[in-house]
Amino acid sequence: MRKRIEIEEGRWLDPAEGQTTVRDWAARWRAAVAPQLEHTTQASYRSLINSRSNPVLGNRELSSLRPITVTQIMASALDNDLISQTLCRGVRLRMTC
Questions:
Q1: Staple 74 to which of 8, 17, 84, 86, CB 3.0 to 4.6 Å?
Q2: Do the beta carbons of residue 19 and residue 63 sit within 8 Å?
Q3: Cα 65 from Cα 12, distance rounded (Å)
């Protein structure tokens, strides 16, 4: 009954989609946005994903990620002089059930 209501209201999420890894989602996302991007931007995104995101989060399932995880990773990258700034600074974490 609850699932049907969520479907009717457009709020239902397929649990299998949450098992998608960050690596797979990043590849799908890049493929979707690529036609709108310059080749150099595509190359930059590919490089960042392959060098920064995938080594740390690539094998994680999307459903396992929480805002604090990403915030901690970005703060650590900043503290270790891997990046000059983080867009996560000052972002209010939102807890969802």
A1: 86
A2: yes
A3: 19
